[in-house]
C-alpha cells in the first residue's frame, strides 16, 4: 500500500442513505404492523402523556375530568357517525355490484327476445297468411 493514502471500508455500518426531497419516513406511507395505510393521527403513549400534562396545567385538576368526558363524547359521536357513513357507503356499493350483472343479463335477454321476435316475423312472412282455395278439379276428359 502506498504511503499517505487511506482506504474507506466498503461495508460501513449503519448503511447511509442519501436523503432526497421526495423521501418519506416509512410510517408516513404504511403501518408497519399490518402493511395497511397509517392512521391519520399516529399518536403514541409519549404524545398522550405530554398532552395530558399540558391539559392538567392549563385546565387544572377540577375542570380536566369534565373536559375529558366532553371530548370523549365528541369522539364517540364522531366514530358512530363515521361507522354509519361507512356502512351505508358499503351497502350502496354492494347494491351497485348486484345491479350491474342484473342489468347486463336484462340487456342480453332483451337482445335475444328481439332476435326471436325478428326470426318469428321472418318465418311468418315466408308463409302466405291467406289460405288458398283448393283448385276445383278439372272435369275428366270425355264428359
UniProtKB/TrEMBL annotation:
Signal peptide: none annotated. It comes from the Bacteria. The keyword Glycosyltransferase does not apply. One of its GO terms (biological process) is protein transport by the Tat complex. Residues 22-32 have a biased composition (Polar residues). GO terms for molecular function: protein transmembrane transporter activity. Pfam families: TatA_B_E. Keywords: Cell membrane, Membrane, Protein transport, Translocation, Transmembrane, Transmembrane helix, Transport. InterPro entries: TatA/B/E, TatB. It is found in: Membrane. One of its GO terms (cellular component) is membrane. Residues 1-33, 109-143 are annotated as: Disordered. Gene3D superfamilies: 1.20.5.3310. It is a single-pass membrane protein. This is Twin-arginine translocase subunit TatB. It comes from Marinihelvus fidelis. The gene is tatB.
